[in-house]
Amino acid sequence: xxxxxxxxxxxxxxxxxxxxxxxxxxxxxxxxxxxxxxxxxxxxxxxxxxxxxxxxxxxxxxxxxxxxxxxxxxxxxxxxxxxxxxxxxxxxxxxxxxxxxxxxxxxxxxxxxxxxxxxxxxxxxxxxxxxxxxxxxxxxxxxxxxxxxxxxxxxxxxxxxxxxxxxxxxxxxxxxxxxxxxxxxxxxxxxxxxxxxxxxxxxxxxxxxxxxxxxxxxxxxxxxxxxxxxxxxxxxxxxxxxxxxxxxxxxxxxxxxxxxxxxxxxxxxxxxxxxxxxxxxxxxxxxxxxxxxxxxxxxxxxx
Length: 303
What we know:
By secondary structure, the chain is of the alpha+beta class. It folds into three domains: 3-50; 53-217, no CATH class; 223-294, CATH 2.40.50. The chain contains seven helices and 14 strands. It has helices at residues 3-22, 28-48, 75-95, 142-156, 161-168, 173-188, 207-216, and strands at residues 52-53, 57-64, 67-68, 72-73, 115-121, 124-129, 135-136, 191-197, 200-203, 222-237, 242-247, 253-258, 276-285, 291-294. Strands 5-6-2-8-9 form a five-stranded antiparallel β-sheet, covered by helices on one side. Strands 10-11-12-14-13 form a five-stranded mixed beta barrel. Strands 1-7 form a two-stranded antiparallel sheet. β11 and β12 (253-258) form a beta hairpin. The protein is flat and about 85 Å long.
């Protein structure tokens, strides 16, 4: 049983208990039916337990000048490279919980961290994982999400302009900056890396590719500007933080992300199909199509 299933049973039990409180004892048959259902719910909740999952684990390995086959890595490279990778992941995790300044301490930094659980053989590197002993099935932590998205960002940096636009849309500049610092560390030591999470693995093929990725993650290559649209929201998925908006000018459907700045995106679903003006951040890399992010709820029209 996962967490959602357990929560569903708990909610149903609460509802049955509430109904029982309103049924008089004179309605014996009706009460007996609900009491039977309540016993079954209590039994399911007590005996089923909650399914757990293993933490998200990353194998970060290196090849190149500072690496001696699968035997060792020079400390003057391995330690700062692993620290730079961890900093990139930590910064991304912190950004899920609110805006990040370009400089200064990361808010609630002690809430974010990676565990170093061993060396990773192949080339040479380390195994890192999100903290947590008993993570529930369906439970997604900030560090687990950040590990996956950091891997995707590195992969997109050697992909198409559309790939990089999609990966960077909505990312705070500081997140991109920290990811770029990790790649700069690799390039400075003539090294490449492999990042493996689960069954998905990404590797830089050579140092030249790392250096091109550094250039592509430069702030001058990723363009963002605010654009104003008039139209109406068609729908919002609060969990995935995505929206659809119909532009009144030409009927174009704009799909985009909702930034962490917006505390409760579900409120938009109370204002669907109502004419209004919104401001979206449009991100574009090179010849890629723009990707849109909503950072602030609009002023709702008076009814």
